[in-house]
Amino acid sequence: MSALCVENQSVPLEWIEPILASFEMTLCLDIGHLKLAGRSLDRTLARWHSHISALHVHGVADGKDHRALTCLSSGDQNALTDYLRSFHGSLSVEVFNFKGLYESLTLIEEWLG
Fold this sequence. Notes:
Elements: E1 5-7, H1 13-22, E2 26-30, H2 31-36, H3 41-48, E3 52-57, E4 59-61, E5 64-67, H4 74-84, E6 90-93, H5 98-112
């Protein structure tokens, strides 16, 4: 798997698929960016799992990202938990305050316990 990856932003992932193929790159899936764009986490993980080498995880609340993972819906938390159990790539918790980071790390520990 390539060490180079492209992170999703607000555009549909299908738009960057040719770039991934042409340059033999992988996907860094940013969960918060995905949710801000109104996309389904479980469908995205199922569709793109073989391309994902890195995950940036954080929640979204009131239209703002980089919130604690507790801000994700229970359905999204379940989808992420299931995915993380077999994920072997890089995981970055992108929460930029201590309380939210602590809550997120505690939640991940519960999920994967």
